[in-house]
Specification:
heterodimer; A: alpha+beta; Nuclear Transport Factor 2, Chain: A; six-stranded mixed beta sheet; 6 strands; 39% helix; B: alpha+beta; Umud Fragment, subunit A; seven-stranded antiparallel beta sheet; four-stranded antiparallel beta sheet; 3 helices; 11 strands
Chain lengths: 171, 167
């Protein structure tokens, strides 16, 4: 091969590699951004807009459970099965029950404050969660709660290890 | 004639470059002002009656607490659900204070508080003594005529205070 051509090819490869590194350096997503995105995705996955079949509901419930670590500690008082250590299977079952009960449901996260442990792949998030649900029978539900969440990074994903309620305003 | 021309020029300005720049700057300034400095809020609910009426428009002035700390007696807008839903309440106690209601009378640090702004009071609010946690303020609405269970009040983190009301 022509030596000049080889140098040009190597040069182009080096420039491309430098470009990729620079891109990753400049536009790398910070852990805070990744966690915010995780909650946005969780909100989108948990959302139910209308009637859905059992298979779709099952799939959605399983997708929702994927946001949780295999053992996640819940302290969600006043919610059936909302307290205790839950496996993904438990969370799938609970989510499925919830999806069956509500005709439409939506959970939105606001005012997120994130504290990332730089030494361990762990983080704590405090946020306001608003749950809106329209049951098949009965009055629509709208609950606003402040929540504390613990997260751990596993296989390039942030997974929830704990979730607890805290009232926004406490008498 | 000159005045008429001026009025005409003001009401029907010529669409030239200067005007376009002015228009863009005005829109941008208004947007930033009403988005971050002076947020319009529609009052929904009667927890501050009769001082602030249900269904009225007001403005939340955010720079207030850039220069001073929140004080007892301040009427504040508190972020409840992001920027979309705010609570309007009055600060009655700061972190470390004790708060208690006895037959409709508010006690802070064991002393009865004179509240001239409370016009509706059935005298049936009772709440055991509690201490306000660090980093929090204790807020209550002015309308004590409604049942205590239906009234949203209590301690809330100070960083949820968005500002004071302008009107």
């Amino acid at each position: 091969m022509n030596r000049k051509l080889l140098i040009v090819i190597l040069g182009v490869v080096a420039v491309c590699a430098a470009g990729v590194l620079l891109w990753r350096f400049l536009f790398a997503e910070s852990p805070e951004h990744q966690i915010r995105r995780t909650f946005q995705e969780l909100s989108a996955t948990a959302r139910k807009t209308g009637k859905e079949g059992l298979i779709v509901a099952m799939e959605k419930a399983r997708d929702t459970a994927r946001f949780f670590d295999d053992v996640c500690t819940l302290k969600l008082d006043r919610i059936p099965n909302g307290v205790g250590a839950m496996s993904r299977q438990n969370i799938t079952a609970n989510t499925l029950t919830l999806r069956n009960y509500f005709r439409t449901m939506k959970v939105t996260f606001y005012d997120m404050e994130i504290l990332v442990d730089r030494e361990k792949p762990e983080a704590q998030a405090t946020f306001t969660a608003v749950f809106e649900g329209d049951p098949s029978s009965g009055r629509p539900v709208r609950e606003t709660k402040e929540m504390d969440a613990g997260l751990v990074r596993k296989q390039d994903r942030w997974l929830l290890t704990s979730l607890a309620f805290r009232d926004v305003i406490r008498k | 004639m000159e005045i008429r021309d001026r009025i005409n020029a003001f009401v029907f300005p010529k669409m030239n470059r200067t005007f376009a720049i002015r228009l863009v700057i005005t829109i941008a300034v208004c947007f930033l002002f009403f988005k971050f400095v002076c947020k319009p809020v529609f009052l929904n609910g009667g927890s501050m009656e009769p001082n602030y009426h249900d269904g009225t428009l007001n403005f939340c002035w955010t720079p207030t607490y850039l220069f001073r700390a929140p004080r007892k007696g301040d009427v504040v807008a508190l972020r409840y659900e992001g920027d979309r839903v705010m609570l309007l309440k009055r600060i009655v106690a700061n972190a470390g204070d004790t708060v208690e209601f006895r037959n409709g009378t508010l006690f802070v640090n064991g002393k009865a508080v004179r509240e001239p702004y409370v016009k509706f009071n059935e005298g049936n609010w009772n709440l055991p003594l509690r201490k306000v946690s660090p980093g929090c303020v204790y807020v209550v609405g002015d309308n004590r005529g409604m049942p205590i269970e239906q009234h949203k009040f209590g301690e809330i983190r100070r960083n949820r205070i968005e500002g004071t009301l302008l009107l």
